């Protein structure tokens, strides 16, 4: 096999498996080439990715070592993406009676959720999360793509406990403008003790749901290492969780004028 | 930029964007190389992918043409994956009181859901689905990864209609051993008329939920082009939907002996 063919295959495998350590031995056996040749292939890929902003390839030494790929977007690239996203969301046809903003198509889009997941992973990777947690339903695609980019499992709290998941731990929490009491629960076997949990959701208003997830994580004797949303409302300014990251801020919706006022968080990195 | 560096970048972009047509112009401008050189780069990638079973690269001529990548697993590779998956699921610790099988960790795993999504995409790509539909909650990750592999949007039917999604269409359906009546609804704006819908879910017993989704698709004047599950029970043999594809069959669970009997569908392709 020619070097250029090996590079095509190694590049594809790394791109499809972000944050996974793949040993040189694996590549060597798969491609029938000496480890020294594979090493040179990887140097070429590393340089190409770096120079074009496609991400970072790290070589980790030792018995458990190998090669690891992570996406790494520049601040400029992230701002371009967030500006595009907020332009899409400002379309006045997205205003739902009652003054809500229709975002479901974006949250469920494979393309948007992949990019958002990669951005969340980039922001929180140094916190070494071992699990990504969300609560059903709309946050699931973004949580999954974040988990994929981090190469960790996703766990999903349910609104009701499910007979098909065995014993569960449940909590009650207050959320929404109606100040309603909700329940959420998570199967006991889903989250080990001492897990480092990154909480992901689509939208935050008062922060009750995020606070509920934080409490749930505590019940599992695990630790929250970050809370991230795609969008948070500007009002109320004080949320029930103190430390969270949002990509976008919903400043307000003027239903009469058909205006949706969204700002981007330009201090993400 | 050297040819090998261009190949690293093109291979990465194609791998991350399955079933998306990317024009040679795009690569040419991005990489600062003539279209003839890009064409040669792509031929090398095509050969490498083909010879190692990494997927299929197609060059489409014309103004709307370009290059398209699709994963394409061999029958043998799929059978190896399904055997691994069923071995994992046969672990007797997965038996939940009541005789259920704990599969949530697999369904929510970024790694498993990616591969399953790619397999579903491969099976149904010739039906040209324009949307992937599931009903919340456990099927969402697999539906999302199928949609990603097909490069189409995912839509998710909700158990209740949501005030934040605007007008919706709802149906009632009967499912589960308890023969309970459930509701599912989908925002009117989520699915255009004449869409070609691939229905994806994690598990099928009687087929009531799949039948409900089929009825919902009909309400949108859209068409079902396929129904696929990760696992279906062997009993009842007659399901409420006649034509569906399952990766695995749950033959039965012997709670006393701690035995889980799963067979794989070896006639997928």
Mind telling me the C-alpha Rg of chain A?
A: 21 Å
Q: What about the largest sheet of chain A? A: 6 strands, mixed
Which oligomeric state applies? homodimer
Q: Tell me the number of helical segments of chain A per DSSP (H or I, 4 or more residues long).
A: 8
Spatial sequence of strands, sheet with the most strands of chain A? 6-5-9-10-11-12
- Identify low-pLDDT runs of chain A: none
Q: What form of chain A results from the Cα inertia axes?
A: globular
The fraction of residues assigned to DSSP E strands of chain A is: 25-35%
Nearest-integer average pLDDT of chain A? 95
Biggest chain pair contact, residues each? Answer: A-B, 58 and 58 residues
**Helix content estimate of chain A:** 25-40%
CATH class of the largest domain in chain A: Alpha Beta
What name does the CATH topology of the largest domain in chain A carry? Rossmann fold
Separation of termini of chain A? 41 Å
The H-and-E topology of chain A, N to C, reads as HHHEEHEEHHEHEEEEHEEE
CATH architecture descriptor of the largest domain in chain A: 3-Layer(aba) Sandwich
Q: Compute the number of strand runs of chain A.
A: 12
Provide the domain count of chain A.
2
Structural class of chain A, by secondary structure, is alpha/beta
Could you describe the 3D structure shown?
Two copies of one chain form a homodimer. By secondary structure, chain A is α/β, with parallel strands linked by helices. Chain A has two domains: 3-70, Winged helix-like DNA-binding domain superfamily/Winged helix DNA-binding domain (Arc Repressor Mutant, subunit A), CATH 1.10.10; 75-264, 3-Layer(aba) Sandwich (Rossmann fold). Helices cover 36% and strands 28% of the residues of chain A. The first copy, chain A, contains eight helices and twelve strands. Chain A has helices at residues 3-16, 24-31, 35-52, 75-89, 104-107, 110-124, 140-150, 208-219, and strands at 56-60, 66-70, 95-96, 100-101, 131-135, 154-157, 168-175, 180-187, 196-204, 223-233, 245-254, 259-264. In chain A, strands 6-5-9-10-11-12 form a six-stranded mixed sheet, with helices on both faces. A two-stranded antiparallel sheet of chain A has the order 1-2. In chain A, strand 5 (131-135), helix 7 and strand 6 (154-157) form a beta-alpha-beta unit. At the A-B interface, helix 1, helix 3, strand 4, helix 6 and helix 7 of A face helix 1, helix 3, strand 4, helix 6 and helix 7 of B.
């Amino acid at each position: 096999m020619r070097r250029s063919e090996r590079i095509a295959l190694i590049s594809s495998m790394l791109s499809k498996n972000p944050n996974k350590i793949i040993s040189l031995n694996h590549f060597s056996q798969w491609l029938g080439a000496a480890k020294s040749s594979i090493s040179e292939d990887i140097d070429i890929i590393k340089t190409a990715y770096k120079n074009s902003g496609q991400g970072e390839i790290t070589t980790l030494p030792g018995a458990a070592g190998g090669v690891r790929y992570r996406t790494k977007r520049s601040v400029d690239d992230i701002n371009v993406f967030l500006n595009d996203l907020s332009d899409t969301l400002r379309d006045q046809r997205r205003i739902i009676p009652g003054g809500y903003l229709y975002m479901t198509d974006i949250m469920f889009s494979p393309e948007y959720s992949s990019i958002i997941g990669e951005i969340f992973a980039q922001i929180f990777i140094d916190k070494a999360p071992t699990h990504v947690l969300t609560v059903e339903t709309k946050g699931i695609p973004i949580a999954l793509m974040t988990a994929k980019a981090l190469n960790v499992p996703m766990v999903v709290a349910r609104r009701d406990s499910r007979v098909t998941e065995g014993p569960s731990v449940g909590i009650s929490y207050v959320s929404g403008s109606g100040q309603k009491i909700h329940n959420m629960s998570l199967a006991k076997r889903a989250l080990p003790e001492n897990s480092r949990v990154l909480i992901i959701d689509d939208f935050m208003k008062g922060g009750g749901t995020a606070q509920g997830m934080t409490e749930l994580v505590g019940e599992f004797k695990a630790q929250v290492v970050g809370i991230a949303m795609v969008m948070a409302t500007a009002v109320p300014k004080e949320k029930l969780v103190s430390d969270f990251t949002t990509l976008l801020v919903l400043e307000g919706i003027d239903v009469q004028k058909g205006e949706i006022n969204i700002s981007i968080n330009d201090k993400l990195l």
